[in-house]
């Protein structure tokens, strides 16, 4: 019986995610540059939107996260991989966790531990992410911070 053809991609993704299991922006930056292909299309929820390549993704997503949350780390709850429309995909979900100390996307900090749910989906080629969709549950963070994210119904 042959080995799972996605096993090496899942292991690579698990190693990338593992880098974020404890605070350490310097290690994170290198891991991000290694995981994403130079011209990767990284689509993150609004207001981040699309970035091309790991440097643009780092500047638009990671820098604001690191500025707002002290001791930030990522907890992964589910990691999986599979084939979809001829591509190899890996995905994960879990939470970014840190002390919410500085405003983030206009949300006032709570000074307390905060959990920001994430979901990531990456199409892989030659061991690197070339197309990604990253979801951050900003409305859930807003509710936890006491800021209702939607207009009240009439």
What does the secondary structure layout of this molecule look like, with pairings?
Elements: H1 7-19, H2 25-35, E1 36-44, E2 49-52, H3 53-68, E3 69-84, E4 87-100, E5 113-125, E6 128-136, H4 138-144
Parallel strand pairs: 1-6
Antiparallel strand pairs: 1-2, 3-4, 4-5, 5-6
Descriptive overview:
- The chain is 31% helix and 42% strand.
- With 154 residues, the chain is of the alpha+beta class.
- The model has no long low-confidence stretch (mean pLDDT 94).
- It starts with 6 loop residues before the first helix and ends in a 10-residue tail after the last helix.
- The chain has a 6-stranded mixed sheet.
- It has 4 helices and 6 strands; from the N terminus they run H-H-E-E-H-E-E-E-E-H.
How many distinct helices? 4
Structural class assignment:
alpha+beta
Write down the oligomeric state: single chain
Determine Rg (CA atoms, Å).
Answer: 16 Å
User: What is the succession of H and E elements?
Assistant: HHEEHEEEEH
Overall geometric form: globular
What do the pLDDT scores average to? 94
Strand order of the largest sheet: 2-1-6-5-4-3
* Low-pLDDT residue intervals, each spanning 5 or more residues: none
Residue fraction in strands: 35-45%
The strand count comes to 6
Question: What does the largest sheet look like?
Answer: 6 strands, mixed
The percent range for helix content is 25-40%
């Amino acid at each position: 019986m042959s080995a799972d053809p996605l096993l090496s991609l899942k292991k690579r993704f698990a190693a990338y995610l593992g880098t974020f299991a404890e605070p350490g922006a310097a290690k994170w930056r290198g891991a991000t540059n290694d995981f994403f292909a130079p011209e990767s299309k990284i689509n993150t929820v609004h207001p981040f939107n699309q970035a091309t390549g790991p440097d643009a993704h780092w500047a638009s997503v990671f820098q604001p996260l690191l500025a707002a949350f002290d001791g930030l780390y990522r907890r992964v709850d589910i990691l999986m991989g599979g084939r979809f429309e001829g591509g190899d995909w890996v995905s994960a979900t879990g939470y970014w966790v840190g002390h919410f100390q500085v405003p983030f996307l206009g949300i006032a900090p709570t000074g307390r531990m905060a959990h920001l749910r994430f979901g990531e989906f990456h199409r892989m080629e030659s061991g690197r992410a070339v197309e990604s969709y990253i979801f951050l549950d900003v409305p859930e963070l807003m509710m936890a911070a006491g800021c209702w994210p939607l207009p009240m119904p009439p």
